[in-house]
Specification:
Chain lengths: 430, 430, 430
């Protein structure tokens, strides 16, 4: 099994398998249970915010929990059964138990005629209603005149729950990774993002850190808004970050830029993608999608981009039962992991250096530099010339990688050799 | 008949038909007659400037008028006849009446061998001469040894005439529309521009105006120069404008940028073209063409672009009898009208707004915004998110349209809804 | 024979023929002899710097000279003979004379299996060793068990030699042309560059000069470093320049930009290439190649680009015996000359002018401008309009050529006419 930075794709996938069955929503025990499992890997702090709390322009809603739900035919057979898939119930459905005519029932059903085998995923957080989602095939089989429906849910004042991990570093500026944690049994969206975030958190927890890191596992929209409302001061220390979403499917990686589009995080992710993922795309910010919407809102303008494979609303399996464990693969999770690791590598290492022999080229032979290079490694030789040329105090190693079109790691390798041989000095970070 | 903003293409075309027969030049009764017809639509002020007046580096020339002109053969038959086409006489020809040998006559003839049916259009405003323009076919039929020629013109001190309409607005900054009015029976160049300008003037005269508008109907070059010479102070209030030329032919619209190239008018026309004309081109300023040359000269540098279809000197029918009423169509005139109307719409409406709930996204449901949107109108929903995100006081609605790549009207619609629902406030214009 | 600016391609080629047989290196009599021949054309100053002198981070090496070298077989026949090609000896080989087994000899041989007829060119300036270069075919014929080898070289403290010509101009700012002079019998690399530089120097010596010019004929790397070490103050006056290398082969011209990439020299060379060489390329600076590496090092950052045809290390004949006089042609040398001449023309003539009639267009007819233009020369008319429009004191003629996309000479011609007719005034250079 291929490992990248100590991790193989199966480890990532296995955590997804554990989390997959849980029925999550924007509040409730599904989120609590999920965070408990994540706490087995990293010491997440779990926050609970009471229903009714004003957060920015929003109000924390009542808490929703569900035990069971079904539609029974006249024989008492469950023709739609929550126990088979938690997608069968419209998320945040209010409780109901009644006999209902088929015609009236139709008003409460959701299916996808264009994908007759798939169950859609629907929510109604802020408008009270109830409903069932089912495959078009199932719907066609509802031929009786009357059915009994039951949604054994509980919708009442409670708490909104989210998890947070703060890893202090040498510097107080923070990097934020944010993953929404509110979807029930959907794999790519967003167990993939959650799993990558928690593995990244575990990795960072175990190494020295230049920057401080913050991981947020919170329900989409209301969770990010709640965190922002309670952390205005902290938010000012965020120098960059990413929402991690849909990172396990077959697509190449896509990076969605921050609002400004030319922040350090934008440049670093671009370089990491260039270095690790042959086929990738970089797209401009737009105010739709996941929680980057909230972070980049005009009042905050936090430089948070978004890393994804399949795009919000753009793949057929999006928000359907087809976004299941078959839709994601260990290999793609691992490739996402590699890119994230590279992003961290650049974030942590990128520095300004000064060439101690800036007049002409130094005589590298007599300084023992060539002895550190395998014969024929022309790329490393070129990287060394680039680092020397750009080590004028105005250019970072990332600038050097960008300008030379060489991989960042090669540039870092060249800088490390030159530093050891006494040709460079590290500048005090600004 | 399709109408766009209350106008159909036939109305535009019919005014062209009325103006087509008149023999115009840079001075004389043809211009006066043309302005009289335009005055039936809008209260143009008619200015007359005496011959000999110094205007910038130029001098207003003598006035030219013509009653008749012909070439007669030995039988007395008019083989070339001004009454058939006013293009037959070189514009500004001095009077002549004489018998002349065929060879000598040839020195005074102009034809187009490559288009043997077409009569060219020629002028000689500043070098006194006389001449006839005729089709190559006609020329080939001149087989007699001698002809009688007559040009019954009058070239003497008089006046240069131009029309001007000023429509004051809330703001004293002016938008200038300028159309040259000196060409005889040529349809596209520039009755099309004149007709669109006068309809636009009539439209603007009847509505509240944020900006002031000025319309100029003047002979090419000397007319623009005369106006500039007499209006140096006024010119400083011009914040943008267009020369309107060749707007009826079959080509897509072309916009020629101002000297600076990134003025507000450049951006607005680009957006209007993007929104209304599938196939269009935008080209950089160059110091040839129509009166934008004068407005953009280094002493003035007025931000005046040029809107056209066929380009100055670039279509075969240019300055020939083939630029006739068959060469232009009501449909194309109407499409030009639509684009002009859109330009005005953006000019008048573009503003800066501030999002009153800039921290995170406001909860649009509870604010009644979603109720204002037809279900499924995803584009309007996206426009609303864009407007909220960019309403940070630094971005105008035009900025928002540009960045979102959505049509300006959709952005305006979103802003109007948000303003009504109390989510935006209009900033005092700078 | 076509002449360009008084020079034909054969003159250039003939000087290459004279210089071709000399065995040059980074020090020694080959360089002295070469400079002597160049001194017959221009009064070069010859500098000699003792071995052991510290220059920047480098030390001037011992001087190398060679009289003869060979490999003899058992019959005493020279199977490899320095007299046939000076490439046969590894440049800077220490002296050797001994019988040697074939196996041991192989350690000292260099050939090119992929080009079995070609002799490679190899050097070992800073690591003492000896060796022979030979064709792969010759190598295959070495079937005896033992050979006698002789390298009759002399490697001992001496001098490093380089030539320099300074041509003062009206202004003290300098333009530097630098050509490496250290290669033995290689034609393109770099007799072509040397020959073009010396012809350019002779041309400039004979004409009035706005800028000062400096020509440097020095061994690669160590020569440029030596000059920089001894001329730190002078270097600050260099406002631009070029390394001239590989200018005679069949490729189109390539310009390699300066470090900053948007210096005046970058813009001028781009324009000259646009005007003279249909098929050319412009590439970004990179810190490998020829002596532009040293000039653009962080301590100096001199705006020195590089003009070439075949690129450093990129053509198969590079550093082999196939880079001989057949590899270069008089025509390509002449085309390189034309481009260089155009670069000088722009450098010397580019100025800022002010339009004395900036309000509208001046009436060119009455100012006698049209009389200076051949009828039908529409391009010159357009150039005149461009010059008038951009002569606002903020734009140079080069700006005008760039913006108009017209050739620089046409723009200069237009400016000259306008200046003579009193429409322009030259601004005092900044």
């Amino acid at each position: 099994m291929t490992k990248v930075e100590g991790i193989d794709g199966c480890e990532l996938f296995e955590l997804m398998e554990r989390l997959y069955p849980i029925c999550r929503s924007i509040t409730g025990d599904g989120v609590r249970h999920t965070l408990e499992i994540l706490r087995q890997m990293v010491p997440l702090e779990v926050h609970e915010v009471p229903s009714g709390t004003q957060v920015l322009d929003w109000t924390v809603p009542d808490e929703w929990n569900i035990r069971d739900a079904w539609i029974k035919d006249s024989s008492g057979r469950r023709v739609v059964d929550f126990c088979e898939s938690n997608l069968h119930v419209v998320n945040y459905s209010e409780p109901v138990r009644q006999r209902i005519s088929k015609d009236e029932l139709q008003q409460h059903l959701h299916s996808l005629p264009e994908h007759p085998d798939w169950i859609p995923y629907r929510t109604s957080y802020y408008a009270r209603t109830w409903g069932f989602c089912l495959s078009e095939n199932q719907r066609q089989e509802l031929t009786e005149d009357e059915y009994e429906v039951c949604i054994d849910s509980h919708l009442a004042p409670g708490k909104l729950t989210y998890g947070e991990l703060f890893l202090p570093g040498e510097r107080s500026e923070e990097i934020l990774f944010s993953s929404h944690i509110c979807h029930p049994s959907l794999a790519n969206d967003n167990l993939s993002g959650i799993v990558l975030a928690v593995f990244l958190a575990r990795h960072l927890a175990g190494v020295p850190r230049r920057w401080s890191y913050r991981f947020l596992f919170a329900p989409g929209t209301i969770g990010a808004i709640t965190w922002l409302a309670k952390n205005r001061e902290t938010a000012t220390r965020i120098k960059g970050g990413l929402t991690l979403v849909c990172l396990g499917d077959r697509e190449g990686l896509t990076y969605k830029r921050t609002f400004a589009g030319n922040e350090e995080i934008d440049r670093i992710v671009k370089q990491a993608l260039y270095d690790t993922e042959k086929s990738h795309e970089i797209i401009d910010f737009f105010p739709d999608g996941y929680d980057e919407r909230q972070y980049n809102s005009p009042g905050f303008r936090l430089p948070i981009g978004s890393l994804m494979r399949g795009r919000h609303g753009q793949f057929p399996e999006y928000h359907t039962s087809a976004d299941n464990l078959n839709f994601v693969s260990p290999d793609q999770l691992l490739a996402s992991w590699e890119c994230l690791h590279r992003i961290i590598f650049i974030l942590e290492n990128n520095q300004h250096y000064r060439n101690r022999f800036p007049y002409g080229e130094p005589q590298l032979g007599k300084k023992g530099v060539y002895q550190k290079i395998e014969a024929g490694n022309q790329e490393l030789k070129l990287a060394i010339l680039w680092v020397l040329n750009l080590a004028d105090g105005k250019h970072s190693l990332l600038d050097t990688a960008e300008r030379s079109k060489l991989p960042y790691r090669l540039i870092q390798n060249a800088a490390d050799i030159l530093l050891r041989q006494g040709l460079l000095e590290k500048l005090t970070p600004i």
